[in-house]
Amino acid sequence: MKFGYFDDRNREYVITRPDTPLPWINYLGCQEYFGILSNNAGGYSFYRDARLRRLTRYRYNNAPLDCSGRYIYLRDGDSGKFWSPSWQPTRHDAEDYSCRHGMGYSIIGSTFAGIEAHTRYFVPLDENLEIWQLTVTNRRAARARIPVFAGIEFCLWDAQDDATNFQRNYNIGEVEVVDGVIYHKTEYRERRNHFAFFACSEPTSGFDTARDAFLGPYRGWDSPAAVAAGQLTNSIAHGWAPIGAHQVNLDLAAGETRQIIFLLGYQENANDRKFSPPGSQTINKESVRPVIAKYLSAKEADAAFDRLREHWDKLLGIFQVNTPDAHTNRMVNIWNAYQCMATFNMSRSASSFESGIGRGLGFRDSNQDLLGFVHMVPVRARQRILDLASTQLATGGAYHQYQPLTKRGNNDIGSGFNDDPHWLILGVAAYLKETGDWSILDEPVPYDNQPGSEAPLYDHLQRSFRYTLERLGPHRLPLIGRADWNDCLNLNCFSNTPGMSFQTTTNQDGKVAESVFIAGLFVHASRELAAIASHLGRSSDASRCLAEAEKMEQTVKEHGWDGEWFLRAYDHFGHKIGSKECDEGRIFIESNGFCVLAGIGLDDGRAATALAAVREHLATKHGLVVHQPAYTRYYLHLGEISSYPPGYKENAGIFCHVNPWVMIAETRLGHGDQAYDYYLRINPSAREEISEVHRCEPYVYAQMIAGKDAPAFGEAKNSWLTGTAAWNYCAIAQWILGVRPTYDGLEIAPVVPVSWPGFTATRVFRGVVYKIAVERKGAGNRIALTIDGVPVKGNVVPPPKDGRKEVSITAVLN
Ligand code: BGC
Ligand code: NOJ
Predict the structure, then answer these.
(1) Residue 503 Cβ < 6 Å to ligand 1
(2) Best mutation site among 485, 648, 701 for ligand 2, i.e. most ligand atoms within 8 A of its Cβ?
């Protein structure tokens, strides 16, 4: 069952039923001002940091679902009926409801009682505000008097404090209302130099800023008393809950259309210019007035919208494909790339599953996200790499997270996730391959942000490499530390205390438990580092990396192989995890996917054997589960993984982040059909038809789909902010379609289904437009390349020497 459809031409998903199984959201903003917006106008806004600069309030985990937002109410002046064109919060049965989620904007509306209304929400580039462009059309045969109301609920900036510290917060709310603009200025009197504003393009017939006055006692946003009465009360909030609500009385002739613009924004003043007149307590509005005036003009708003569209055309234009499969095309060309940008902007902070008050930026997560967005925002990716590396510890280890506002490592979580350092190598490698900007390796970067500790980024990578070699266990495999990619495999945390954090508790000595997954990651990252070192002419570093990678590969074959697949780990007692000897958790996806991705066992049949076992034991119609059998009880020595009921999350859920490792592994064996089959099983668009089962948005990946052991098999959770976006993008773009940046040029190495006659692609790479046509002549993956009509050897296309800006490539598959 579907709740809408893809409009690929407009790069939109159009939701046609408001009662989606969960709020299906979109993101507004791509620089400093952001918002989450659901298909029913739910969500909230913030400036830079979803916890510390929250503009509007949101009630998480609420019943009914998703009921704080950017709400508009229309009222029939004659009958007194009122409704919301976005369905929520009044939930009237409207006609022609639709929500178009597009690139950085959404248009939501419906028709009720002959009155059609749609609102286009977006954040203009380079501005710290959002525009709501409401269009109302009278479809009745007669004149209609329609008072329109728009309302938001302000958050008192720190979203955590806002939701907990009521003894203070009920006393501090302050607003100003001047020239029809509502200003939210809680704490502006003291240490804040920022305020929010809510403005309206039309002369208003009333406002409210006190929630009690607007809603009325014991009433909700679904039936505000002032809207029911048809007249706002001009209330001024003192203490209690400040809101912003405007009223505009429309009088529409039959067929007439009117537009109203509402602006919600954020503004800062210099500390010495906060008040006007100086010495007063009144906000100095000098800097904000022109911005408000500008965007209250429909012409300016439209122009800003056009610029936003151009911005996305440009970003998405960097890689466009035309394959025989619509799901692939729309995910690669539109939604998967868009989701990668959301992970760049949000990391893991704000979604329907991340409250915006919790996690900072993960070291592992951010490095992996980079793989998916580096081609779109290379300059910002460069900065992200330097920020991440600056939090690296002198040991080569990493804080597991850092705070985006301070860019400091997060001490509460600390370090000791022994896979972390290697993701930095992979992130840097991806950056170098995309940009060819080798200068980044010379950048002086501190350790743990300590001034004076700066060393070239290249040295940081070397420390990442050594970190593992200095932490080998009894089998010479890498010690796991607190956990590896699987945050829930906590082999050194024996916890019997409810609520104790698995992520930060280490109460075993940590000298025994080893990870075969980290071994595979180490092999892969060390070979990347070797390539980087040889490019720099540091041949002894290169040889050392290669030698250690080789040694680790042998160790994996000796101690990390279970006969039919790669083991997952050794526990604190030196017992195997992910072995046929185990009762539960006999085979895992991570070690098998990553070891083969790293090339281990390609030469001796182990890779093929392992992937056959993955297929047999882990593949389901909804994707590959993390392990089998699921853990059916809590194991003290395994940690959080066994805390989840079978089939959910790390306990045998379908982790969409690691499925692509197996896809890539399959391409390394030349299995295009198998890789593509796995790709489609979790491709959100390909799952659109079963939206009632999948339940999350059909246009973006979710972190997890419940596995076959779960009663809700096939149900997705944690959509949007997940490493799934980047890895699936890499798997399809670079390994299945095989358009792959390398240090020396663009490599073309498709491993696509046998049934595909071919495909075309356009890739902008280092300033050159590559037009690629792949044609299948035989059933294999052998490739014959011509560049601008001239046959060439190999399959890497070097950057044109003569400054040409467009290159045409034909690749024949045989
Ligand atoms: C989740 C993991 C997550 C970890 C760290 C766990 O509860 O299952 O997916 O990475 O928390 O936040
Ligand atoms: C989510 C975390 O953000 C990611 O870093 C981790 O690898 C997965 N969960 C698996 O535990």
Answers:
(1) yes
(2) 485
- Decide: 484 in ligand 1 pocket, CB within 6 A: no
The letter for the amino acid at 555 is: T
Mean pLDDT of 173-196: 98
Rounded to 5, what percent of the chain is helix, strand, coil?
A: 30, 25, 45
Q: Which ligand has the minimum distance to the alpha carbon of residue 626?
A: 2
619, 654 in Cβ contact below 8 A?
no
Q: What is the pLDDT of residues 368-399, one digit of tens each?
A: 999 999 999 999 999 999 999 999 999 999 99
Q: Residue 270: how many CB atoms within 10 A of its CB?
A: 9
Dmax over Cα atoms in the chain, in whole Å?
Answer: 85
In tens, the pLDDT along 217-241 reads 999 999 999 999 999 999 999 999 9
Mean pLDDT calculated for residue range 572-594: 98
- Residue 374 Cα, ligand 1 centroid: separation in angstroms? 25
- pLDDT digits over 677-726, tens only? 999 999 999 999 999 999 999 999 999 999 999 999 999 999 999 999 99
DSSP string, 637-695: TTGGGGGSPTTSTTTT-EETTTHHHHHHHHHHTT-HHHHHHHHHHH-TGGGGGGHHHH-
The residue contributing the CA closest to ligand 1 atom 11 is: 487
Lowest mean pLDDT among 407-416, 637-646, 793-802: 407-416
Q: Are 226 and 245 in contact (CB under 8 A)?
A: yes
Closest atom, ligand 1, to C-alpha of 649: 8
Task: Report the share of the chain in percent with pLDDT over 70.
Answer: 100
Ligand 2, atom 7: nearest CA belongs to which residue? 485
Six token digits for residue 412: 């509460």
Q: How far apart are CA 627 and CA 565, in angstroms?
A: 12
Confidence of residue 104 (pLDDT cuts 50, 70, 90): very high
Look at strands 129-138 and 257-268 and give their pairing: antiparallel
Bridge partners of residue 583, in order along the sequence = none
Ligand 1 pocket mutation, candidates 399, 503, 704, 718, criterion most atoms within 8 A of CB: 503
How confident is the prediction for the chain on average, in pLDDT?
Answer: 97
Contact, 561 vs 567, CB < 8 A?
yes
pTM to 2 decimals? 0.98
The vertex-154 CA angle with 148 and 158, nearest 5°, equals 160
| Residue in the structure block whose two tokens are 């064996």 | 669
CB 386 within 8 A of CB 454: no
Kindly state if the Cβ of 488 falls inside 6 Å of ligand 1: yes
Q: Is the pLDDT of residue 67 over 90?
A: no
User: Which pLDDT tens digit goes with each residue over 772-809?
Assistant: 999 999 999 999 999 999 999 999 999 999 999 999 99
Ligand positioned closest to the Cα atom of 417? 2
| 3-class secondary structure, 318 | coil
CB-ligand 1 contact for 487 (6 Å cutoff): yes
Residue 359 confidence (pLDDT): 65
For CA atoms 26, 31, 35, 36, give the dihedral sign.
positive
Active site residue 487: yes
Instruction: Check 487, 541, 562, 571 and give the catalytic one.
Output: 487
785 and 795 in contact (C-beta within 8 Å)? Answer: yes
Which distant-in-sequence residues (6+ apart) come within 8 Å of 809 by Cβ?
748, 770, 771, 772, 773, 785, 786, 787, 797
pLDDT exceeds cutoff 80 at 360: no
Q: In the structure, which protein residues have their CB atom closer than 6 angstroms to any atom of ligand 2?
A: 348, 362, 364-365, 485-488, 650
Helix axes 589-597, 606-618, angle to 10 degrees: 150
Q: Which of 795, 808, 787 is nearest to 749 (CA)?
A: 795
Q: How far is the CA of 649 from the centre of ligand 2 (A)?
A: 10
What pLDDT is recorded for position 397? Answer: 97
> If you measure from the C-alpha of residue 487 to the centroid of ligand 1, how many angstroms do you get, rounded to a whole number?
6
